[in-house]
Recover the amino acids of this structure.
């Protein structure tokens, strides 16, 4: 199963459309729209790493999503780039994945598709890819990264083509 976490606050815009195009090509997949998940950021309390044994102390929509994410073969982060990062909505979900145990990450594929107003060859995509590679190495996952410019509708068409090639 592929779990897509869509990080745009803008419903139906470029990042959502990329995420939905990806979902269409993935047989067994679901999307969580981070903006719709009522949940708090990680508190760094360490409960999940001690007494909680992989369970987050906070009970909200994100902890419910986490139970499904645990069972996924692939986790796919789709997010617009805000200030050289994923959005706050996406990051909130990513941080809460801290509760997952090392063996629960095993064998998972990590897909990251980021879009921004920059041109496709902008340095930000290289930087972000390197950053997610570090994360993938840490959790021992295979990283599949795509960074695309979605400056306008024309650029978006190009981004969609790139996504289709990426899925192949
Ligand atoms: C707060 C904010 C920060 C942004 N920072 C960046 C950035 O660092 N790099 C970039 O390429 N685009 C940046 N953008 C542009 C968005 O990534 C771009 O508009 C994208 O298409 C938004 O995705 P969406 O259409 O799914 O909402 C920023 C936009 C906002 C609102």
């Amino acid at each position: 199963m592929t779990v897509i976490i869509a990080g745009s606050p803008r419903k139906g815009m470029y990042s959502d459309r990329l995420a939905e195009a990806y979902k269409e090509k993935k047989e067994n997949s679901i999307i969580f729209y981070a903006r719709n998940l009522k949940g708090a950021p990680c508190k760094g309390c360490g409960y999940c790493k001690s007494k909680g044994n992989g369970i987050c102390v906070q009970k909200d929509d994100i902890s419910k999503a986490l139970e499904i994410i645990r069972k996924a073969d692939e986790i796919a982060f789709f997010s617009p780039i805000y200030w050289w990062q994923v959005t706050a909505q996406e990051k909130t979900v990513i941080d809460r994945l801290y509760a997952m145990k090392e063996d629960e990450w095993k064998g998972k594929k990590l897909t990251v598709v980021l879009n921004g107003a920059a041109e496709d060859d902008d340095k930000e995509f290289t930087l972000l890819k390197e950053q997610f590679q570090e994360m993938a190495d840490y959790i021992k996952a295979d990283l599949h990264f795509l960074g695309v410019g979605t400056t306008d509708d024309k650029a978006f068409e190009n981004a969609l083509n790139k996504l289709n090639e990426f899925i192949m």
